[in-house]
């Protein structure tokens, strides 16, 4: 128990207040006094109190109402309250219990009764304070550890994304336009994935994983990758292998982003009607991440200049995407793409090729 617990004595009769002070203060208790209910509530709002000795019959706000208001305060709801009353009827005591008091003392107040009543209630108050403080300390420790874990995870994520960025930069050394292409189509993929209705975690993972879609082109010979004209049949077979090579490079990771990158690298050239490569997947057999990246990749390829072609106009590019619904592309993904058409164009303008 505290060395000098603070009692709030509330009574409209000063003689009653002085009597209880005379009983309590020699025993080491400190006292604060109020002559009305509202004054008592004001004191409680501004300083710590360990126990309330509260007269019931007061003008204005009576003891029952004060008790109810104290119990309605989250910070004070466990504060011990002893009602001081000349009323002896059972119904009045029941009313006090219903209001939330902890005990009663009958007027005229007896010294020994007063001291014997407050002592166990103060011990309960100490226990409740200890429990509350322990809970707060525990919550603070959990919050601190959670923040530390959060920062550790953030650092790990940043390191993983840096690794991904460095991997994708490998392709840039073969194609001056690849860097801008990767940035645009990753953002296109993010926009389409969100429009399609994927959850935010998946959307974010697609944003980062999409950048690895053509990682396998690191194995594609320059004379094929940078060829100005159309590829012949043999060259085309070699070119198609970049999907398998990319997936192999990314396989076996525990990272969700890299695992998704493996799926995208392998399947972003699959087509809704089954005519794509390397596995000839059809419809919903194609992972949704690959279906999303496919439309972003094709849009950027159509609307950008390449060694083997000029860029198409905006109108023709959109027309080709629309015509590909149901054969090249998942119709639902096409709808999601056109739902964010303005966002797609804004990304294209912001990250235009220099």
Description:
It is a single chain. It is built from 15 helices and five strands. The chain has about 350 residues and is an alpha/beta fold. The chain has helices at about 15-25, 35-45, 65-70, 90-100, 110-170, 180-195, 200-210, 220-225, 235-240, 240-250, 255-265, 290-300, 315-325, 330-340, 340-350, and strands at about 5-10, 30-35, 50-55, 80-85, 105. Helix 6 runs antiparallel to helix 7 (about 200-210), helix 6 (about 180-195) crosses helix 12 (about 290-300) and helix 6 runs antiparallel to helix 15. The protein folds into two domains: about 5-140, Rossmann fold, CATH 3.40.50; about 175-350, Hypothetical protein af1432. Helices cover about 60% and strands about 5% of the residues. The model has no long low-confidence stretch (mean pLDDT about 90). The longest helix is centred in the middle third of the chain and has 62 residues, at about 110-170. A five-stranded parallel sheet has the order 2-1-3-4-5, with helices on both faces. It starts with 5 loop residues before the first strand and ends with a helix.
